[in-house]
Amino acid sequence: MTEVINPATEIVVASVPSTSLEETDAAIARAQAAFPTWRDVAPADRSRLLRRFADAVEQDAENLAQLEVSNSGHTIGNARWEAGNVRDVLTYYAAAPERLLGKQIPVPGGIDITFNEPLGVVGVIVPWNFPMPIAVWGFAPALAAGNTVVVKPAELTPLTAIRLGELAREAGLPEDVFQVLPGKGSVVGQRFVTHPAVRKVVFTGSTEVGKQIMAGCAEQVKRVTLELGGKNANIVFADADIERAAATAPYGVFDNAGQDCCARSRILVQRSIFDRFLELLEPAVQGVVVGDPGSEATEMGPLISAAHRASVASFIDDPTVAFRGSAPDGPGFWFPPTVVLPSSPTDRTVTEEVFGPVVTVQAFEDEADAIRMTNDTDYGLSGSIWTNDLGRALRVSRAVEAGNLSVNSHSSVRYWTPFGGFKQSGLGRELGPDAALAFTETKNVFIAT
Ligand code: TAP
After folding, report:
1. What is the CATH topology of the domain spanning 2-228+425-448?
2. Which fold has domain 233-407?
3. Identified catalytic residue from 68, 227, 299, 430
4. pLDDT for 188 beyond 90
5. What is the ipTM of this complex?
6. 0.95 cut: is pTM over it?
7. Ligand 1 pocket by C-beta < 6 Å: which residues?
8. What is stated as this protein's family in its record (predicted)?
9. Is the Cα torsion angle 429, 432, 434, 439 positive or negative in sign?
10. Dist. CA 159–CA 154, nearest whole Å
């Protein structure tokens, strides 16, 4: 059994059984056995089941949100958005069975047709930072394309995934088509990688573990989608609306206490407005409401665990701290929003993913300098560009090596647009109109006439 702790209070809120290796194998075998039937369910019937699942999530949304507040310390506002995201992603991909159309390709001497065949069993490995959305981004398109799915939530945050498993059954999804297996990454997650019946692994987590997963999958040339770390830039040009850029910058990085692969954790500001920007940023950071995640007014909750707080704290070199926001005293894994003026571009706060409420602010000279600094990282997930010059916005967007960019905004995730990373931020794309295709193999059939 694993004890689940509320990170805002340090109180144990649940005990969850850990799936063993034998139980994982048994679950994968059941998923494999369920596949031929699920694959052949008529498209409208599969859509109907996924819509019913979405409806069940909708009915249970407040309960799911409250569970996430107590398990993950997410603010209630964020947790409600996350439950809504599960409903929306399920609804969106419920239509996918009708979209997975093959092609008929003109050829001499016959007829040529392609089929998008589902893969079989798909294993989805989920991190602790966004337990609901990241799970559904994997399992909804996989199910819609006709695969059966086993999901491994993070050991720290299994509660909402377990509840989603119950809701799927209540909605009528066959039990073996969608199974949630709480447990250890080294046991359950690793088995998804090594078990030959698991035909694809969707992994979201650290780049370090992602590389191990990719190497493990290579043994069987297993399909893999990787969503890994980020060290994303928020570039503010002198021609931008500086007030708005400064007012929103804290929310681009401190949302979910910075435990966000898309956190804009490097603010790059054109030198001519650097001092003015910092003057505006300070009250914005100090105004972030940190505290009880269950309170409607709260904007930032705690970190996930004591160990993670120690990891975040290890990045802080006090002389470089420019200013900080607030954090409650007492129980809970709190860490204040922290703004750092690095002493060198090689400081760890600049080069490594902190995954906490820590942001660096650095000056750049011109457009070329901004692009060079932005791309000076092995990561390439997201980023923001603040400018009122449309040409510049497009030039910089094209030059930045990252999968998800926003201009005059910090938004990264929309279920109807593709999401994923360049370089060591990942492999493949989730969400958007093509995500279900990533859970199929293209088969070409030529019929001689
Ligand atoms: P990890 O430590 O990599 O863990 C992620 C998941 O993988 C957990 O469920 C973990 O299980 C499991 N796992 C660990 N070792 C494994 C192994 N050898 N084989 C199979 N599974 C294994 O990451 P984390 O600390 O939970 O999450 C934070 C990281 O995820 C950050 O780097 C962040 O940037 C990244 N992230 C990326 C994205 C996107 S979309 N790109 C989104 C969110 C987070 P346990 O429960 O045992 O730990």
Report:
1. Aldehyde Dehydrogenase; Chain A, domain 1 (3.40.605)
2. Aldehyde Dehydrogenase; Chain A, domain 2 (3.40.309)
3. 227
4. yes
5. 0.95
6. yes
7. 125-130, 134, 152, 154-155, 184-186, 189-190, 193, 204-206, 209, 212-213, 227-230, 261, 353, 355, 381, 421, 426
8. Belongs to the aldehyde dehydrogenase family.
9. positive
10. 10
